[in-house]
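name: query_chain
kind: protein
chains: 1
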Amino acid sequence: MVKKSLISVFLSVLLLVVSVIPAGAVQSDLVSAPSAVLMEASTGKILYEKNPHEKRPCASITKVMTLILVFEAIDSGKLKLSEPITASEHAASMGGSDIWLEAGESMTADDMIKATVVASANDAAVALAERISGSEDSFVQSMNQKAKKLGMKDTVFKNCNGLDEEGHITSAYDVAIMSRELTRHKKVFDYTSVWLDWLRNGETQIVNTNKLLKSYKGITGLKTGTTDDAGCCISATAERDGMSLIGVVLGADTGKQRFADAAALLDHGFADYSVKELKPPKDLPSSVPVSGGMKNSVGLNCKANAHVVMHKASADEVKVSVDAPKELQAPVAENQKVGSVRCTVGKEEYTFPITADSEVKKTSFPLLFGVVFDALLAM
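structure:
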């Protein structure tokens, strides 16, 4: 009898405990790595985060920032893909993953970038840094300046390749920010999509460290990294149905776990979210009357070409309201704001200006006389 009473009490307590557990609390986390972020690339919206601002080393994902500065140098004309870059003693001394550059050896900038992206070559990354800034130290200063400009508040770079060094830290959130910036340079995908290639006229084979290239639908890049301090890391980019995602995983125990976590992040994004383009409403008037002006009407413009990320299971719809004038009073300046279009999606609101597409001067006797005079000359 006592035994049955104890069992009843135990079951009652168990039911009470279960009843106060929040819904979903017993579900396992999306990733097993200690820190992760999923970002939609066109908007920068965070779709998932786990310890996003935890400061950690990120190994060779550091090279994402290195590549940002490299592609900026290419865009500005400071660096040409065809030009030879000669490795210094310092560049050739790098350990870890490399392409075994010898001091004095030259490769084109194109091959140095390929080695940095595909093979994660530390020596090639330093050679590029020295070519752009004169020294690795000077280049690292530029890396930190760029990080500050991008709003990367958790990051301090100590080198350009990601080798373990005291104080060389970032966060999953910051990695997502700089990965998004790098993907603005579309040329980078010519390298990140390469699985296997050769250097030194076919003498040196390089294989991409991003194994998702062979296993994940829509994968486009971006960079892996592994060191003793950082663990196994990845910033993975993928695109499906017009939506681009960035999945960041830091500190995974194994390479296999890193790729599994990255795939889980991307799967979550593609399964649960979509991107909708906001456009001007079809009923927006193309022009509006103008009183007291040298023209009786003026055309209207509205560049409402933004994107919004929507949860597929959400009932939220895009609600559009237009505040456009029925008439304007001259003078009207070109590009003058005369109204607005407001788009509301759930709790988010986007406002786009309606502007005049040309100038309308106020009516005056000299202007009217000029118009009449020109008309008489044309007869």
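note: The longest helix spans residues 2-20.
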